[in-house]
Amino acid sequence: MIKKGDFIRVDLTSKIKKTGEIFETTYENVAKEAGIYDEKKIYVPMPVVVYGGHFLEFIDESLIDMGEGDSKHIEVLPKDGYGERNPKLINLIPLNEFKKANINPIAGMIITYDHKKGKILSVSGGRVKVDFNNIFAGKTLEYDLNVVEIIKDDKEKIKSMIELHYPQYPKFDLEKTEVKINGKTVSIELDKTANVNNNQTQLAITQSKFRTSQDIWKNMDVEKIEFIESFKKPSEKKASEDNKEVLEDNKETSNDDKKTSSSQKSTE
């Protein structure tokens, strides 16, 4: 049975009760039917820590005492979810503020302003109306949960957090990630391709390592976490294959950059 601090894998589908709109799911077929399918995403049970801050606390509470294979349907009222809508969080911002940032504001656009995420409601009279309420504020949400696995092995617990937080997953092979536990020290050597993908910034990778470390510190008897990078001299044939793979990755990234640049020019 699930208890606080357990590492688990759970399938879920989340929707807005009033409209029936599905906004999150771990099932590929459900995502396609709902029109939210993302080809860059892998649809598998989600690894989380119960009461680890990955879910709303009400969902964590609902998971307690469930077992592997158990399913549950829950409703989350605004008071247990994202709160009621607050009219004070709808602000008028001078259009010039957006021009300074080279942003062309359009109704429906999601922006970050003064470290807050908001949705543009309208643009008129030199002012932009932005709603900084959480998009789920004031809404009752429904969740269908299915517990797939309660993770027992410590190394698998650590790998599950890498799966959750590391930006390149599932592009790198998690099975090739080595985890060693020596007392209260954990050493992690990621699959080598994890650091080859140029589509992620070094900052994003560092942040993901920190989030992984935080979840391990908080929920396991661990004091130190080391991320190790090692490079072994390959055979001549292997080196040629690796160089070809890196060149192809760089070419793909370059093409993506050109598309982005073209899109930005078109928008301007």
List its salient traits.
31% helix; Thrombin, subunit H; alpha+beta; Chitinase A, domain 3
- Our measurement of the CA-to-CA distance between the termini, rounded to an integer number of angstroms, reads 56 Å
Strand content: 25-35%
The main β sheet shows up as: 5 strands, antiparallel
What would the principal axes of the Cα set say about the shape? globular
The parts where pLDDT drops under 50 for at least 5 residues are 256-268
Identify the CATH class of the domain at 1-85 and 138-152. Answer: Alpha Beta
Category by helix and strand content: alpha+beta
Element string (H = helix, E = strand): EEHEHEEHEEEEHEEHEH
Query: Which architecture of the domain at 1-85 and 138-152 per CATH?
Result: Roll
CATH topology descriptor of the domain at 1-85 and 138-152? Chitinase A, domain 3
Percent helix = 25-40%
Overall pLDDT metric: 86
The number of helical segments is: 6
Describe the protein in words.
This protein is 31% helix and 27% strand. With 268 residues, the chain is an alpha+beta fold. Among the domains are: 1-85 and 138-152, Chitinase A, domain 3 (Roll); 87-131, Thrombin, subunit H, CATH 2.40.10. The strands form three sheets. Strands 1, 2, 3, 4 and 9 form a five-stranded antiparallel beta sheet that branches. Helix 4 runs antiparallel to helix 5. The longest helix is centred in the C-terminal third of the chain and has 32 residues, at 236-267. It is globular. The chain starts with 6 loop residues before the first strand and ends with a helix.
